């Protein structure tokens, strides 16, 4: 898996969010998108995930220009390769922990799910409703979902925001492990501890 960003730009309501952004990401890398609030970190992350359309330039994934993708192609990309860990957790609170990992009621009780929940520190809690989880536990569910899917690209928006030290360190370690297994992990973050763990830094102040 390889992602190349070639000279992309985004305007919102006539305001330049960023321009002339170019960089590359390769298999096994953890990449931080940094900068102050309002600089376009989340917008860039959404562009990389084809949630937001760029106004100029192109994004290449494995040699394919994904900025030209139709909705069907985007859906297939998300189904086959990618997952998004949201700042607000992206959890279905009235569903079980196991369902939130698999998003498939037929796979909830598999051995694979039990192993992943143990890995993220939620062993034995597969039947609990997600609403009872703490913020840190919900964030770990997002990572468990990525591990279950065997995602080759993981997008994460402020994955350590509002977490206590213990949960922050655990989330950072889990993301690092995903990268070591070959995923591209791309993060929009303010967290200096998380930035220091990354292989590459994209400073939005440059754009």
**Strand composition percent:** 25-35%
Low-confidence stretches: none
- CA-based gyration radius: 17 Å
What is the tally of beta strands?
9
Structural class call reads: alpha/beta
CATH architectural label = 3-Layer(aba) Sandwich
Secondary-structure element order, as H and E? EEEHEEHEHHHEHEHE
Number of domains: 1
Helix content: 25-40%
Task: Report the biggest beta sheet as strand number plus sense, adding barrel if it closes.
Answer: 5 strands, parallel
Distance between the termini: 25 Å
The CATH topology is Rossmann fold
Major sheet: arrangement of strands: 6-7-8-3-9
Mean pLDDT, all residues: 93
Number of H- or I-type helical stretches: 7
Shape: globular
Q: Could you explain how this protein is built, in words?
A:
Strand 4 and strand 5 form a beta hairpin. The chain starts with a strand and ends with a strand. The chain has a single domain, classed as Rossmann fold. By secondary structure, it is of the alpha/beta class. Helix 4 packs across helix 5 (135-149). It has seven helices and nine strands, in the order E-E-E-H-E-E-H-E-H-H-H-E-H-E-H-E. InterPro entries: AAA+_ATPase, ABC_transporter-like_ATP-bd, ABC_transporter-like_CS, P-loop_NTPase. GO terms for molecular function: ATP binding. Pfam families: ABC_tran.
In short:
By secondary structure, the protein is of the alpha/beta class. It contains seven helices and nine strands; from the N terminus they run βββαββαβαααβαβαβ.
